[in-house]
Amino acid sequence: LPTRKVPYPDGFTAEFLHACWSIVKSNFVAVFQQLYDMHGRGFHHLNQALLTLLPKRADASTLGDYRPISLIHLVV
């Protein structure tokens, strides 16, 4: 990952991962160990997304009245 680049909006930069690697390393290793133990059957979990529409105002009636919020790349 190039310096100061993020793979998607609201993502973490390479600098973040480098600075916090001692903290997040065990989580990364655990995720990939689970995928390895499932012999590739769990890779579809890496591409899941949860999308929720939050109303911007109380009388929301059109799509423009909502703000989309999503959580992506969940590993279940």
Describe this structure in words.
The chain has 76 residues and is an alpha+beta fold. The protein has two domains: 1-40, no CATH class; 42-76, no CATH class. Helices cover 32% and strands 18% of the residues. The protein is built from one helix and two strands; from the N terminus they run αββ. The chain has one helix at residues 14-37, and strands at 49-55, 66-72. Strands 1-2 form a two-stranded antiparallel sheet. The two termini are 25 Å apart.
Report a brief summary of the structure.
The protein has 76 residues and is an alpha+beta fold. 32% of the residues lie in helices and 18% in strands.
What is the percent of helical residues? 25-40%
Number of helices: 1
Mean pLDDT: 77
Round the Cα radius of gyration to an integer and report it: 17 Å
How much strand?
15-25%
Strand order of the largest sheet: 1-2
Shape: flat
For the largest beta-sheet, the strand count, sense and barrel status come to: 2 strands, antiparallel
Counting DSSP E segments of at least 2 residues, the number of strands comes to: 2
Distance between the termini: 25 Å
Number of discrete domains: 2
Give the helices and strands as they follow along the chain.
HEE
Provide tags for this entry:
single chain, 76 residues, alpha+beta, 2 domains, two-stranded antiparallel ribbon, 18% strand
Describe the secondary structure blueprint for this structure.
Blueprint: H1 14-37, E1 49-55, E2 66-72
